[in-house]
């Protein structure tokens, strides 16, 4: 027995002789026998685990990956059939027909057929995953056409058919029993080859009395902007969780990209329209530059930027646009059964939110939805950053009130999925920051909320919302603490830009706008008084940088301070005003 089925109350049974797995509820357990018969002959050795780097390569029973060819030598017909009855009703089966009376159900069958007929075989040309969007009002089978196959389209009868995604394997065993087995095998071989070429590991004798970490395969696939799978990917990762702190390691570090830098450099490159032409004034120079880079580094030329780290980019009417519409559609498919909310704002202004004081555990995907919305907010949707950040405080024990509020944020995102950021709006390299604070905004601990938005020219490249670490005793103190966070970010961005000497960027003093006159005066005044002597010395960083003339500190009216969107829930009119500042395509 392999365990339980995922979607039904039955067992999963593995038959070693045939190498097949079936699901059934008709199982009898013989409790008088422990373990399994070790003499049973397996059909093949597909189901062993990989324990070292060399296991996958040295397996004599593994079917080698066929050489890739440019085309096949016959016309293939791909047919998808939706099951109409039984427990698997709604499941879509995929078949290939090289001839009218020959039906092939898997890549192994296709491979054997090609070998028997002397036909070139390319596993990438055969897709047994039912990932088609089937039309309504059409019958039971559909034949699809790709670049490599010619086919006729028949009708479909199942009006209830839906998009079926490829299941990503959780481990090596699962990767060997799915229809896409050969694609995953090819991805694993690619990964092992890259590890060898880059000298990632070195085989050494096992030290005595030392803990040895295991490894496992992690699988995923890469999609284009239309949702079509472009590439299967596999990564061999160490099981570091088995290490013991203080014995196997003393410090950990996981490098991740800061998307602020991505936005910053894309805006710089888009703004430097004339200068970029020097590097690619014609196709020959472009190819020479790419060839030189490839000769020094192992890189891939991905062509025009269309999707990067979950964000989509488009060149439209001379403007370079950034958005996440595909990601929002994926969220719609995953969380589509969430009750609808027609609110025009992420959170209603003036709402009071408290901890869940009840013992009942709410069985809802609260943290999943928070995580998805956090990813969206950090990339392209600053208008929901405050709401998501504030509601994430209740991840451990959300109440029905918290759940209804995060559902409201989710449906606000669905209703405003057309919001985009125009990266071509910038006409200068000046950094401008807006800071704000909401004093004692958290009703539970009375701590304030800091927020800032930083523009490069007219494009928002950095923003933040966070609860302050200390309790501010006045609105001036809260604004001053928020100001210090913006100053740290401005100093860092200026250093990044100044370090890129090859760009020859002009040196322009940054501007920071604050809507609190008291905080501005305190920043410019070196004197202390009875009301300010308790402020932590670390916030005097603002005065130091201001005296060094690294930025100008100016006043802005609270009605025109865009950082207000990062510190509190706003009315619809105010939110729309600031969204027009941050986004394009904002509907009325």
Task: Give an overview of the whole structure.
By secondary structure, this protein is α+β, with helices and mostly antiparallel strands. Among the domains are: 172-242, no CATH class; 259-323, no CATH class; 325-416, no CATH class; 421-582, Ribonuclease H-like superfamily/Ribonuclease H (Nucleotidyltransferase, domain 5). 29% of the residues lie in helices and 17% in strands. The protein has helices at 55-58, 107-117, 172-175, 181-197, 259-271, 273-279, 283-296, 325-334, 366-379, 385-391, 400-415, 475-499, 517-524, 541-547, 572-582, and strands spanning 3-4, 11-15, 20-24, 77-82, 92-99, 102-104, 141-144, 215-223, 229-238, 307-308, 311-316, 319-323, 421-422, 431-438, 449-456, 459-467, 510-514, 551-555. A five-stranded mixed beta sheet has the order 16-15-14-17-18. A four-stranded antiparallel beta sheet has the order 6-5-4-7. Strand 1 and strand 2 form a beta hairpin. The longest helix has 25 residues, at 475-499. The protein is globular, with a radius of gyration of 29 Å. Residues 42-72, 131-164 and 274-280 have low confidence and may be disordered.
